[in-house]
Amino acid sequence: MSRIKNAFDHKKAFIGFLTAGDPTLDKTEEFVMEMVDAGAGLIELGIPFTDPIADGPVIQEANIRALEAGCTTDKIFDMVASLRKKTDVPIVFLGYLNTMFVYGYEKFCKRCQECGVDGLIVPDLPYEEKGELVPIAKAHGVDVITMIAPTSKQRIEMLAKEATGFIYVVSSMGVTGARSEIKTDLAEIVEVIRGVTDTPVAIGFGINTKEQVAKYSAVADGAIVGSAIVKIIAQYGENAGKKLHEYVEEMVSGLQKIMNM
Q1: Ordered DSSP codes for 139-203
Q2: Is residue 175 over pLDDT 80?
Q3: What is the pLDDT of residues 7-23, one digit of tens each?
Q4: Annotated catalytic sites, by residue?
Q5: DSSP class of residue 69?
Q6: Where is the active site (predicted)?
Q7: Is 104 left (phi over 0), alpha (psi -120 to 50) or beta?
Q8: Residue 163 has pLDDT above 70, yes or no
Q9: Which of 143, 148, 207, 246 is deepest in the core (most CB within 10 A)?
Q10: What residue spans of 55-140 are helical by DSSP H?
Q11: What is the C-alpha separation between 138 and 147, in angstroms, rounded?
Q12: Regarding predicted confidence, which is higher, 145 or 183?
């Protein structure tokens, strides 16, 4: 069983996102382990990029901090290789296509395999153009995660049928960032997905409270939190570890309520 499948095997998964290299890569490694120890079932690591079009101000600013601190893709790979000596938690990169194109798709996916990266989320990779990356990633045992947005209604079945790893359902239109209210009928989207695939489904974009985690993990197989975690790092910097542990532990308790019902 792959690490991603294991994260969802007979349980709900809390997925936490943070930007690699913010404030430093040593701290990113520490923060990941704090999140894992607090119960995170899967970790998303953002590869810093100068123009992260799917991200709101909180994550954009984290990208800038990481780049200014000297974070590079090669250094992130080295950090993941170090993490793999400490944990088997699934690790998925969130990165933009230009980063992988410039690095070289073959070289990038090969390094993912060598270092223990389980999947890729590429927000600016259109379905119609996925052929340039997906076969290479698959050859190296790396899942390219399918993203399904509220605007995808006419395409949900097509997108879901070929999905591997897990499916990332985008809760709301717009960019990343905490939201007090999510109005999309996510249950309807998940129901359509369930009709064509057994691939696990996780909901992200805007989730930031324990109550939201409970609500949406009841519908799906997991919940994704990013901006709220990045905000904690922005506020506490190198001293964010304890605060992250406390926050993730609280979010995971939302999953546990659903699981024990």
Answers
A1: HTT-EE-EEE-GGGGGGHHHHHHT--S-EEEE-SSSSS---S---S-HHHHHHHHHTT--S-EEE
A2: no
A3: 999 899 999 999 999 99
A4: 44, 55
A5: T
A6: 44, 55
A7: left
A8: yes
A9: 207
A10: 57-68, 73-83, 97-103, 105-115, 134-139
A11: 17
A12: 145
Residue type, 78: D
In the sheet where 222-225 sits, what is the strand order?
Answer: 143-144, 119-121, 91-94, 42-46, 13-19, 222-225, 201-204, 167-170, 146-148
Q: Which residues of 221-235 are buried (b: 16+ CB within 10 A; e: fewer)?
A: bbbbbbbbbbbbbbe
Cβ 228 vs Cβ 17: under 8 Å: no
How many CB atoms neighbour CB 183 within 10 A?
10
Q: Cis bond leading into 200, ω under 30°?
A: no
Q: Distance between CA 78 and CA 82 in Å, rounded?
A: 6
What the block records as the tokens of 180 is: 């007090």
Tokens 């790396």 -> residue: 142
3-state secondary structure of 92: strand
This prediction has a pTM of 0.92
E strand or H helix at 146: strand 146-148
Whole-angstrom Cα distance, residue 81 to residue 179?
A: 34
What does the alpha-carbon distance between residue 219 and residue 194 come to, in Å, rounded to a whole number?
A: 11
Tokens for 47?
């590869």
Q: Can you tell me the mean pLDDT for 153-169?
A: 92
